[in-house]
Amino acid sequence: MSAPLLQLNSITKSFDAVRALKGVSFSLNAGEVHALLGENGAGKSTLIKVITGAHQSNTGTIEINGKTVEKLTPASAHKLGVAAIYQQPALFPDLSAAENIALGLEPPSALRGIDWSQRRAQARELLKRVGADIDPGTEVRELSMPQQQLVEIARSLGKGARILIMDEPTASLTQKEVELLFGVIRQLRKDGVGIIYISHRLEEIFAVADRVTVLRDGESVGTHPVSEIDKAKLIRLMVGREVAAIYPPSQSVPGAVVLALSKIGCAQSQVHDVSFEVRAGEVFGLAGLVGAGRTELARILFGITPADSGTIQLNGKTITIQSPQSAIDDGIGYVPEDRRRHGVILEMSVAANTTMSIHRRIFPGTWLRSGAERELAQKYIRDLAIKTFSDESHVNTLSGGNQQKVALARWLASGPKVLILDEPTQGVDVGAKSEIHKLIRNLAAQGLAVIMISSDLPEILGMSDRIGIMRAGTITSILDGKTADAGTVMAAALGQTRPATAL
Amino acid sequence: MKNFLRSNIAKHETVLLAVVITEWFYFNSVGAHFGSLDNTFDIVRHSVEIGLLALVMTPIILTGGIDLSVGSLLGLCAILFGKLWRDAHFSPMAAGICTLGIGAVAGGLNATLITWLRLPPLIVTLGTYSLFRGLAEAITHGVDTFTKFPDSFLFLGQERFLGMPAQAPIFILVAIFVWLLVHRTTFGRSFRVIGFSPEGARYAGIPVERRIAMVYVLAGIISALAAIIYTARLGQAKADAGTGYELYAITAVVLGGTSIFGGIGTVHGTLLGVAAIAILSNGLVHARQPREVAGMLTGLLLILALCSSVVPKLFARLRARRQTAAPIQAVKTS
Predict the structure, then answer these.
(1) How many angstroms separate the CA atoms of A324 and A302, rounded?
(2) Cβ atoms of A402 and A375 closer than 8 Å
(3) For position A401, which CATH number holds?
């Protein structure tokens, strides 16, 4: 057998202090579909970006067609036949299919005339190769999502792509469209194209892939032919790390129901029929894959995209949450996922950030009172051990963990009844992480109802009293935090079990 | 004292204050009557209208917005004020109050288009810039001029009150109001938050739309006030009143250290910006320089001011890049 199309040897990649890839090796043969599997944040995207040249690896070597590539850039990756197709097709919606295909193929020259008939003929031929029944003259905006994907594949083939990366190509396709796509993939495989296939749907991996590599915490934990592995083993590989017993134990006894959702839905954010209750003193974990609708649910509860169906009850009273202001008035706080864009104002002081959501309460009559503001900020700097030079320092001078504490301080200052934490320890160093965990426990012990969204499975398991699993825009099951383990949570998130109806 | 010096010496406003003082001493030495009380009052009279527009432009730019329509609105309000007084026989007082109301409605139009339809302020106010001026011209058919206002009204623009030009106390009151609004209230705090990050402001529960609406309505009201003072100063109202004033106002605000991207800026900076431009254009006349030089020098001053705020940041970024570059090298070689 000839040299593999693509061979990665001990690739490492670090961002600041975070090591996203720790010595990953990976190979792809001609005419092979190689699936890449892993939890959120396991390093799949980083690996793809190294292959497409978007990121440069720190150490390790890349061989394409048996030749070592010194420095892979997006342009040189293109030339070597690497192409990627993402969930959302990256086409120009106002141009025709033929034009979109031609854009990738024709050498850029401002003065050259356009040979329209040649363009069409070439597009027609490429589209036929991927089995697409599309008129090349159709504007892309009029095509369905799978048709657009086929146009993208055709364009990649036209460019002579030999290594095709498909990142969750079926995420927005119906079952029938998936079958069609698989037909195309099998045809490409026959033509000798190597395909790296990323999906969270395990069935698809068994249906279409030859080999599967599982990534976990930036490391490859094994490559197996799909014929020699089953779903249970794959799930074990994905989650099977030792869960460090560093999580503070739950001490609180859940009290009365604080927040009760009944059939909450919002068409705009594709969330539907969400029902659950959170009690005082309880940490309710929300697990699920990226795109399952967890952040969207939080945005509904915080009034950023208000619910358009269902009812929300707070302490037994039905409330409507129309805006973040009304959510705050009702006693709901939200520490958002994107800390730097939404959680804090980086260019403003710690003190200003702390009081930002309680202007009316701390500044009656709208006059700023810097004494009261600084006093409050000092209190939270002490209570949360925020490492900052002073309360007047701008938040962008703080480390990620301390920025997150400022975001938390803002909501603690508002005295909420319900606190929603969205990935509270993402991008936070280990020390600050365990401090934040302790803090969450203390808040629950004080009678707060906490909803914690996290893609960090050990965190979900270690912190939650109960775990709600979201999948495709709704809560599919609720597990007991004491009995749930990584396998059951991951299986539920992937949709591998019947919805268990535990309370 | 040393700390005080260090924290203030590099501040934009301090530099600008030095520029204003230098300008004053320079023109005082070359121009014959520049430093006289009469000329000082002349400078004040000529800069009150643009100063008012610059004052209300400051909170708008702090939110990351812009209002190009203030000059045109000044023209429209001047015409409507004249119309109400001459044709509808309102007293100047009643006409003035109605004009302020009209200004509020016009500002409300800007605010509605910006917050409800979520259109960019630049485009919205570019539209109303033409709309308001066009209305003023349509009402007067481009020729009608309102004159012969009673002396009691002209007092506001031409006489002295409390030992200063009569419009000065109004300007001082508006300046104090805007300063307090921007620097001492939660509204001002909200403007900055919105300017730094409108999304972040929403997530903090700040009523972003209401705050944005507020600054544009305020700009409308104060533009109307500037129109009344303008009419009183010149003793006439024409459709071309205030042409180009929006650009002078924006120049003064930016010269005063307000970031065009929002979030950063002060009202006293804006006042210094107004003073720097007003002294420059008046002083050049006294120094017997042609008028065009004033425009050139104002532009030069603005570009220099922008450079002075960008260059230190540029150096800081270069230094930061050199520092972060080193450890990456180390990783590669290890």
Answers:
(1) 5
(2) no
(3) 3.40.50.300
Cα–Cα distance for residue pair A167/B276, rounded to 1 Å: 58
Confidence of residue B329 (pLDDT cuts 50, 70, 90): very low
- Domains, in order of start, for chain B: 57-302 (1.10.3470)
B181 vs A contacts (CB less than 8 Å): none
- Domains of chain A: total: 1
Interface test with A, best of B179, B183, B186 (most A CBs within 10 A): B186
Contacts 24+ apart (CB under 8 A), B9-13: B10/B312, B12/B256, B12/B257, B12/B269, B12/B305, B12/B308, B12/B309, B13/B256, B13/B257, B13/B266, B13/B268, B13/B269, B13/B272
Average pLDDT rounded to a whole number, residues B134-160: 92
Q: Comparing B266 with B316, which gets the higher pLDDT?
A: B266
pLDDT-derived band of residue B1, with 50, 70 and 90 as boundaries?
Answer: very low
Gap from A413 CA to chain B (nearest CA, Å):
12
Considering only CB atoms, B193 lies closest to which of A58, A356, A360, namely A356
Give the start-end residues of each E strand in A65-182. Answer: 67-69, 82-85, 163-167
Within-domain flag for A398: yes
Among the residue ranges A327-336, A432-441, B121-130, the one predicted with the least confidence is: A432-441
Residue A45 within a domain: no
**Amino acid at position A122, single letter:** Q
Check pLDDT > 50 for residue A500: no
Residues B208-259 have pLDDT tens digits of 999 999 999 999 999 999 999 999 999 999 999 999 999 999 999 999 999 9
Q: How far apart are CA B24 and CA B10, in angstroms?
A: 21
Cβ–Cβ < 8 Å for A155, A126: yes
ipTM value for the complex: 0.86
Looking at residue B96, what is its pLDDT? 96
pLDDT band for position A376 (cuts 50, 70, 90):
very high
Contact A345 B187 (CB under 8 A): no
Average pLDDT over residues B163-186: 96
Q: Does B317 lie at the interface with A, CB-CB under 8 angstroms?
A: no
Tokens of B215: 């600054």
Eight-class DSSP state of B99: H
Using a CB-CB cut-off of 8 Å, the residues of chain B touching A344 are 200
Q: Which long-range contacts (CB under 8 A, 24 or more apart) does A432-439 make?
A: A432/A399, A432/A400, A432/A401, A432/A402, A432/A404, A432/A405, A433/A401, A434/A246, A435/A384, A435/A385, A435/A401, A435/A405, A436/A401, A436/A404, A436/A405, A436/A408, A437/A246, A437/A247, A437/A248, A437/A462, A437/A463, A438/A248, A439/A384, A439/A408
Dump pLDDT digits (tens) for A395-414: 988 888 899 999 999 999 99
- The domain containing residue A409 runs over which residues? 257-493
CB of A59 within 8 Å of a chain B CB? The answer is yes
Query: For A209-222, what is each residue's pLDDT tens digit?
Result: 999 999 888 888 88
Is B186 touching A (CB cutoff 8 A)?
Answer: yes
Residue A115 lies in a domain: no
The answer to whether residue A266 is domain-embedded is: yes
> A367: nearest CA in chain B?
B185
